[in-house]
Amino acid sequence: MKVTDKKSARFLTIEDWTKEIPSLVAIFSAKNGGVSSGAFSSLNLGLHVKDLPEDVISNRRILAEELDAPAANFIWADQIHGADIRKVTHNECGAGTLLFENAIPETDGLWTVERNVFLALCFADCVPLFFAEPDSGFAGAAHAGWKGTVLNIAGAMVHEAEMAGTDLSKLKCYIGPSIGSCCYEVDDFVINKVKNCLGENEHKSFIKKTDLTYSLDLKEVNKQLLINAGILESNISISSLCTSCEDDLFFSHRRDQGKTGRMAAVIGWRN
Ligand SMILES: [Zn+2]
């Protein structure tokens, strides 16, 4: 995901994917070019963060227009840092778009094999995972904070893809902008969960800083989980962007001490 002007960027695309698969929409929004103000300035796409709902809905319209995708065909989820995943179809289009109460309940991963259905999840430091495979038509997105990561939502989505008839050797995964190990300090409690979910590969993903703290690379943990689930390393790409470091580009829950907006990861197939 390249950015030419960080202060004006509205969204970032996965260049390699869109070049190779023109019918695929796969983007991660930035925080600029919207109508929200204050802590939510300006392209806040989260309806659940006490921003003015009418501003968020305007921002979502801006996003849909830029993607040339119908706003009514987006599907949003009520994310709870779990590992539950839902298959969605045209029947769910519009869920959570105008009203948070109508979002797909208690779900941190969405996937579809239908065209003109755009899956949208909200982020402000957690790891966005994108999945795409044109032959089976599988498109998925998952929200992996540390909790979803150690619950292995990455592996759960790969399992869903396989059940949907996807040849795993062709499934592409993209690990999007999220808090980097540069800015992500955690304690033993989290590290022990990482060790439990990764086994022998865990040593690559964290460094001990003090007696009580570690810097954790959640992107790397997710990469290892994807490989463990059967994804070829050559089919996994990782954004180098840290949401906390990149203040001009992104909201960051940690950096902004909880009061901030949300970016969106969106994936779907054009008609
Ligand atoms: Zn950072």
UniProtKB/TrEMBL annotation:
<dbReference type="InterPro" id="IPR038371">
    <property type="entry name" value="Cu_polyphenol_OxRdtase_sf"/>
</dbReference>
<dbReference type="InterPro" id="IPR011324">
    <property type="entry name" value="Cytotoxic_necrot_fac-like_cat"/>
</dbReference>
<keyword id="KW-0862">Zinc</keyword>
<keyword id="KW-0479">Metal-binding</keyword>
<keyword id="KW-0808">Transferase</keyword>
<dbReference type="GO" id="GO:0005507">
    <property type="term" value="F:copper ion binding"/>
</dbReference>
<comment type="similarity">
    <text>Belongs to the purine nucleoside phosphorylase YfiH/LACC1 family.</text>
</comment>
<dbReference type="GO" id="GO:0017061">
    <property type="term" value="F:S-methyl-5-thioadenosine phosphorylase activity"/>
</dbReference>
<protein>
    <recommendedName>
        <fullName>Purine nucleoside phosphorylase</fullName>
    </recommendedName>
</protein>
<dbReference type="GO" id="GO:0016787">
    <property type="term" value="F:hydrolase activity"/>
</dbReference>
<comment type="function">
    <text>Purine nucleoside enzyme that catalyzes the phosphorolysis of adenosine and inosine nucleosides, yielding D-ribose 1-phosphate and the respective free bases, adenine and hypoxanthine. Also catalyzes the phosphorolysis of S-methyl-5'-thioadenosine into adenine and S-methyl-5-thio-alpha-D-ribose 1-phosphate. Also has adenosine deaminase activity.</text>
</comment>
<keyword id="KW-0378">Hydrolase</keyword>
<dbReference type="InterPro" id="IPR003730">
    <property type="entry name" value="Cu_polyphenol_OxRdtase"/>
</dbReference>
<dbReference type="Pfam" id="PF02578">
    <property type="entry name" value="Cu-oxidase_4"/>
</dbReference>
